[in-house]
Amino acid sequence: MSWTDLPDFTELLLRLGCAREQIRDARHKPEKIDGLIPTAPGKILHQLQLVHPEGLGVKALAQAVSLTPGAVSQTVQTLVDVGLIDRATAPNDRRAVVIRLTDEGIRQIHRHEAMMNALLDGLISEAPPEDRAAFYRTLALGLAKARSEWRERSAAASSD
Predict the structure, then answer these.
(1) Whole-model pTM?
(2) DSSP label at 83?
């Protein structure tokens, strides 16, 4: 089971981990923790990894992750600047641009997932085995439903 199958889960995990560790520094910002990906970039990176590894245009990507095209454009530029994604000419239309993950982007996602998995495993490690099993089953059902809905929304965005 991968806890990070759904990028929206990242913020919850991060907040739980921060609470568990009782971080008292008022200046602490979750998006500044090394190796963790903030929610909006996480949505974009995971969409490109899980649903559209061939790449996606900005408008379709914005629809797929439920963000405005402007927000996606700004986030894409930031991700391009740090080398996690790149822009390429669309194979079926030389005038169009698609956004794709780079090898570094894939490595960063894997690093992020490993950190999130370790965080949640640590949060529930003291629960009795039967409670953990029930939690896993319930979460798996919820994630499967969310993943299905996410893919349907992404497919609808791609066909527009």
Answers:
(1) 0.64
(2) T
32: which 2 tokens? 């500044």
60-74 confidence digits (pLDDT tens): 898 888 888 999 999
In angstroms, what CA-CA distances link 50 with 9, 118, 126?
A: 15, 21, 31
On the CB side of 69, CA atoms within 13 Å amount to 6
The vertex-38 CA angle with 29 and 33, nearest 5°, equals 45
% of the chain exceeding 70 in pLDDT: 72
CA-based max dimension of the chain: 57
Place of tokens 């969310």: 146
Q: What is residue 12's three-state secondary structure?
A: helix
Task: Of 78, 52, 77, give the one whose Cα is nearest residue 63.
Answer: 52
pLDDT tens across 80-131, in order? 999 999 999 888 888 888 999 999 999 988 888 888 788 778 878 888 999 9
| Cα distance between residue 54 and residue 71, in whole Å | 21
Quick one: which H or E segment has residue 3? Answer: none
